[in-house]
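assembly run, all chains below
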Amino acid sequence: MDYQQFKKMMLASRQDIFLEVIAENRENIRIKKEKTVVKNLDKIFKATLKISNQKGFQAMSMRDLCQETGISLGALYAYFPSKDDLLSMLMTQGRDAVERVLDSETLQFDDPWGKLKAFIRTHVYLSEIMRPWFYFFFMEAKNLNPSDRKKAIEGDLATEMRLESTLEEGQKLGQFEKRDIVLTAEMIKGLFANWYIKRSKFRSRNISVDQYADFMIEFMADYLGVEDQLGKVSGENM
Amino acid sequence: MDYQQFKKMMLASRQDIFLEVIAENRENIRIKKEKTVVKNLDKIFKATLKISNQKGFQAMSMRDLCQETGISLGALYAYFPSKDDLLSMLMTQGRDAVERVLDSETLQFDDPWGKLKAFIRTHVYLSEIMRPWFYFFFMEAKNLNPSDRKKAIEGDLATEMRLESTLEEGQKLGQFEKRDIVLTAEMIKGLFANWYIKRSKFRSRNISVDQYADFMIEFMADYLGVEDQLGKVSGENM
DNA sequence: TATAAAAAAACGAACGTACGTTATTTTTAT
DNA sequence: ATAAAAATAACGTACGTTCGTTTTTTTATA
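ok done. output:
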């Protein structure tokens, strides 16, 4: 599956997660009609990401958000109880979406190299579609309240563990060369972050998502000494 | 040269750069005695980095800084004209120091691989000693005023160009395997950032600076197909 | 060396402004 | 006509910054 296919598939499932987040926070939202909530909360989330990614969430004022969304100050507070809760909701929605997609695209694989490849490709594609979210997670993680902060760290650690166990399994099966697992996992995560943080740089150099995913997979194949140099899986699963 | 040697060498030259920054901003500083300026501005810079790296520069209030430094609100403003100027001064001091050290440690090399190795090792060591600065650059770059922002981008681009030209030269001489230069340079920078951004993670896993530098050099040797797998140069220059 | 005068530095209360948030009023939709 | 949603104006608070005063340090004089 290349990026275009992935994108189509994603757009279908995005709405579900959004509705679930709304359902979870229903008591905090004063608006009655579901349709109105969906329309305006979407607008609010998008505007928050836009402004925050320019100047940081703390520096974003409610008046900034008011202007960007076209919704008045008073009306905004019908959709969330406080600025801090808005941050919470945004983080939750994003993390849930990411986790769900990563799971659905990688759990099906048995062999470590297949799993690793799928994980890399999915992560790169996902971070492209949801770039504002990924950038936001990265930059605003330290501003979270203790509870959300804990959740964020746990989520991060889970991803890391999955990566490390895949590498370990590959080494045990003799599929991968022996490398420092922690460092390797950390490096992979660093390369992921590189894509969504320096996105504009890659755009100006005309490097596509698919190129970057291929590059990372080729890179890892090289480093781990795997024979299959072709990034894209030819089978029916991916 | 290993990290301990590098550290010793660095500490000697740090003071000079600090004095130069003070000299450049002399008209903005109301304090007459050089010694007082050095003592307190150093305190102010360190406190700013500490607080900013916890909660962000914007979120740091002058009262926070007042408490951390032990200098009163009124006195603080004798050392810089505004909070924004404080940010400027910090950025300038840091960037100047980094650029100078990187230059002094890499310009002497002729062969691309030697230069690349020196660049990697110097950068990793430097970002270890000046970690608060590097973290600060990374996180606060978007909060700069247009003029400082331009300078920061230019500095970044210069580093990138130097990296790319070294890679290109190595390819031309047949020393390196043919790889996408832009992507490779971007990846190296990503690995640099990984070190100072996830510093606590590496510490908890007992990975030392020297190990990380060796890891990166070995990694690049592998990727570029260079014979010399030994990270550390045996000659007298490095 | 001791002391008075001058300069330098530090202090902390006060200013205006912009923030997050809310209570009240107005508009819109049913 | 009634309920829902949006808009407005206002609240208290915390911010960056300033300024008159006090404290400390340096210099000058005996």
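Chain A touches chain B through 29 residues (CB under 8 Å).

Chain A has a mean pLDDT of 92.

not gonna interpret more than that til we talk
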